[in-house]
């Protein structure tokens, strides 16, 4: 259940990035909207960069509370954990360095132990045999294929309709609705879940970048055929980005949901993950 909820959150973030890249470049005061949104999005799909790729250019702080489920189906939300995040040149090896729990700094000895484990892990990667390296590269390639499949499903499922403009906090925003095509063919479980969500996206009119994406479940979302659990209609994801060092980066992801696990146990969760203190990595000139 915990991993399934995380997959739901990731699907909404992927949608946000597809929308971001599917929007036209600013052209004058009003801007020009694509006449054929579907064709435009298919072309854009080829050059889409996801936040996990962009974030590899930065270190940053991440504060989050993880959702957990016991063997008996009891859902709880863990403590606020603060991480220093350091990208790795090796895909999938980003280092989330836990530095505090509920605002209390981690014990220096524990921090040193975790750092030593990280260095040992990196050393093991450097010392891999050719066979081990080939296996690791294949696993990384499979992960990329899975992400691409989710992207393709998002393109197939979601339909965008530009509905107007308004001013929020002094900023001119372009407003679009996002609705699912219920009969779209998908190949991933995330694609199936996407069909149960609709919402609205706000875009800064000055540079056509996403300011906010707000998505709600329009029906109950079954997980594991409904046996593992259900996320109820009305559950909500809010995704926000902000511009830092001329780059748009994740700022906050909020998840408010109710549902049931193991057919009978109710749950209600409210979590917010924040990303802050971005610092661009220095690139070697050699």
Please characterize this protein's 3D structure.
- The chain is of the alpha+beta class and 286 residues long.
- It is 30% helix and 39% strand.
- Strands 1, 4, 5, 6, 7, 8, 9, 10, 11, 12, 13, 14 and 15 form a 13-stranded antiparallel β-sheet that branches. A two-stranded antiparallel sheet has the order 2-3.
- A hairpin with a 5-residue loop joins strand 11 (221-223) and strand 12 (229-231).
- Helix 1 crosses helix 5 (130-157).
- The protein starts with a helix and ends in a 6-residue tail after the last strand.
Globular, elongated, flat, extended or rod-shaped: what is the shape?
globular
Give me the strand/helix succession.
HHHEEEEEEHHEEHEEEEEEE
Structural class: alpha+beta
Kindly provide the radius of gyration, computed on alpha-carbon positions and rounded to a whole number of angstroms.
20 Å
The total beta strand count reads: 15
Largest sheet: 13 strands, antiparallel
Mean pLDDT: 78
Ordered list of secondary-structure elements with their pairings:
Elements lengths: L1 H21 L14 H9 L5 H4 L3 E7 L2 E3 L5 E3 L3 E6 L8 E7 L2 E2 L2 H19 L3 H28 E11 L2 E10 L8 H6 L2 E8 L4 E9 L3 E3 L5 E3 L4 E9 L2 E15 L3 E16 L6
Antiparallel strand pairs: 1-4, 1-15, 2-3, 4-5, 5-6, 7-8, 8-9, 9-10, 10-13, 11-12, 12-14, 13-14, 14-15
List keywords for this structure.
single chain, 286 residues, alpha+beta, 13-stranded antiparallel sheet, two-stranded antiparallel ribbon, 6 helices, 15 strands, 30% helix
